[in-house]
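Weekly puzzle thread! Below is a chain. First person to post its structure in token form gets bragging rights.
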Amino acid sequence: MEKIKDSKTTIILSFLFCIIFGVTVRVYNLNFDNLWFDEIVSFWVADPMISIKESYHRNFLTEGHPFFFNFLLKMLHQIFGYDPSIGRYFSSTIGILSIFSVTYLSKILNKNKAYLLTLFLVSTNIFLISYSQEVRVFMMMFFLVSINLIFFFKLIDTHETKTGINKITIFFILSNILMVLSNPLTLIIFFSIVLFVVINYFKFGQSYKNLNFSLGVTLIF
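Winning reply:
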């Protein structure tokens, strides 16, 4: 019994250490450097003093991704003020949330304690830390992809027990749409799921009705 308690204590302490470390490095010296050029572009596009139409036009002229991220940034500036630090707080918050989402995704995929390794890798990854401190779309894209995959695997696991449209189906559709709106590169994830459905149908005769419905709605959108 003591060994079991020691093991649980070690797991809890390891979990807390990784979380605290991951959060700390994402907020420490967040505004130490000035905005770099691409961040200035996002800041310019999200100007709350101009109309949404004008912001959309600026996004179309300067950005290589849809308007969704800069639209959210614009809303935040309207609420909290037009300050360069707002965008970085937004990115760091999403970066912190992604620690939990990717760790949970790992736990879904593997029921053992491998999620602790995932937690450590995500918390300490230098690229994820860097993107969490930039006013750019990439951290939000990463987070939305992890959320999308969570609902994808949940939909796969429940396809035999839950038929018809349910909340998992709705959340998967929503995550699909938001993911694609964040960056066109996420279409790789979307069409990989489409390929999974096609292969499973023709090779194994499996049909995921809710998943097919979700993909169809996303394609229509």
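Puzzle host: Confirmed. Bonus trivia for everyone else. The two ends are 55 Å apart (CA to CA).
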